[in-house]
Structures are given as structure tokens and as C-alpha cells.
Amino acid sequence: MATRAACLVCQIIENRIPSKKVYEDELAMAVLDVNGSNPGHCFVMPKNHYPILEQVPDAEIGSLFNISNRISSAIFESLGAQGTNIFVANGIPAGQTVAHFIINVIPRKENDGINLQWHPKQLSEEEISTVELKLKEQTKNLGFEKEEEKKPRIQTKKPVVLSDEEEEYFTKQMRRLP
User: Fold this and answer.
1) Are 156 and 60 in contact (CB under 8 A)?
2) Global pTM value
3) For the chain, which residues score pLDDT lower than 50?
């Protein structure tokens, strides 16, 4: 496992390796992939060194995916993309090539030659049930299985007022909906 000093991504974040930055804040950075699959392919990465997804704190994951969503919107608006792939290669068998958590945002156009398809595994009913039971056992204490207590919603008379920036962002998002 790479240490922070030897990590290629950390060297980019510390400006020891040149990059084409498209976004930066106190916790994250987004750069163009110089060997990207399509023009505009970006990496969104935490500034703190985390080799895999499971090590990134929940609050940072939320922020990183929010940034990825905004980068995706910028790709639609500025590059005329027809779609984006947003994915994480989490671990060497999943295709991770650098020991630093990264979210890929890839611009897509029809017939662009990128193939992210796979052949489905045909499992027997017994195999599927075994996998289901193992995962249920491992995730039973995550808190997702509990059905939230239904509480009546209380309507407030106060209208929600969006800033001009938020209004513009939501308007652009709605235009993209089919």
C-alpha cells in the first residue's frame, strides 16, 4: 500500500506533479485525466490520503459525490456530453491502479467506443439465496433495515427561497431531464 509520500495522487494534490485542475476546495480536488477515455474525463479526489472507499469518512464521501455531480453537470453544459459515467474502482481487482480513492467522471456520447458493459453471471436460486443471506447478516446493524416511523408532515407557510446560483443550478438540472 502506498504511503502519502509515495502516492501519485497526493503528489498531484501537493502540486509536485503538474495537473489540469478544474475544481478545488479545502477537502477535495478535481483534475482532468491526462490519459482520459474521452475529453473531459475527470478525477474527483479527497485531499486526505485514503486508499479505498471504506476508509473515507461519510461526510467526505457525501462532499466528493456532490462535487462529482457538479462536475458532471459542468461536463453536460460545457462539453455537450449526452451522458456521464460516474464510478469508483475500489480495489485492485476492480481496476484501481493507484492506492488513493478517486471518483471518475467520464463524459459520454453515443457511439464513443467506450465499453463499460459486462456479461451477467448466471447463478442458481440457491447461490443467489446464499449470497443474500451472507449480505443480510453482514449488514443487519447498518440501520437501513429499520423502517422509519411514519410521522405526519407539518406544512410550514414560509416559502423556500433559493439563491440565484441555486435557482440557476436547479433550472439547468431540470432541462436535462428527459
Assistant:
1) no
2) 0.75
3) 144-146, 178
pLDDT at 145: 42
- CB distance 41 to 20 below 8 Å: no
Q: Which tens digit of pLDDT belongs to each residue from 117-139?
A: 888 889 999 999 999 999 999 99
Degrees, nearest 5: CA angle 51-18-93: 30
Any idea which residue has 472507499 for its cell?
A: 53
- CA dihedral in degrees (169, 171, 173, 178; nearest 10)? -170
Sheet holding 21-24, edge to edge: 21-24, 28-32, 42-46, 103-108, 83-87
Q: 164-176 and 58-79 are packed helices; what angle lies between their axes, rounded to 10 degrees?
A: 70
Do the strands 42-46 and 28-32 form a parallel or antiparallel pair, or are they unpaired? antiparallel
